[in-house]
Specification:
This protein has 149 residues and is an alpha+beta fold. The chain has four helices and four strands. Helix 3 crosses helix 4. 22% of the residues are buried.
Length: 149
């Protein structure tokens, strides 16, 4: 086709983690474990992506099913059924609820979602969980409510 290939100099620069993995880590794993490590990692990554896609779809359905009247809050979920969800689905539902209520996805961390999850699974009367974006999650009236502080 008359195209000139371009060799990206970053592909050999050890300042980049991907280059160090390609030239140091993978050869060390191949030496220790035998050939096929890269292919096995690629297969595992594909399987995990498929699993994550399935969990995401289950969470979308659960989120829709658990919607409740908001009682003045931005998002409300019925607690009945929420605690029974597998953790991988439940935490996706909680993250979606927080984001839909206005919590910025880039600052909403696992530590926040875990704290909200404790309002569902380990509630002992704790008051609320503050979330990024000036939001709060609170358990009240058999619901989990998300809204501004």
């Amino acid at each position: 086709m008359g195209l000139e290939p371009w060799d990206d100099p970053h592909n050999t620069d050890p300042a980049y983690a991907r280059v160090r993995v390609r030239h140091e880590a993978l050869p060390a794993l191949e030496k220790a474990l035998g050939p096929g490590v890269a292919q096995a990692l690629a297969r595992t990554a594909r399987m995990l992506r498929d699993d994550a896609d399935a969990l995401d779809e289950l969470a979308v359905r659960a989120y829709a099913d658990l919607q409740a009247t908001q009682d003045g809050y931005t998002v409300a979920l019925r607690l009945e059924g929420l605690a029974d969800l597998p953790r991988a689905v439940r935490t996706r539902v909680l993250r979606t609820a927080a984001i839909d209520a206005g919590s910025p996805p880039g600052t909403l961390a696992a530590v926040h979602v875990d704290a909200v999850d404790r309002l569902v699974t380990a509630w002992h009367g704790q008051r609320h969980v503050d979330l990024p974006g000036g939001l709060r999650a609170v358990r009240r009236y058999a619901k989990l409510l998300f809204g501004p502080v």
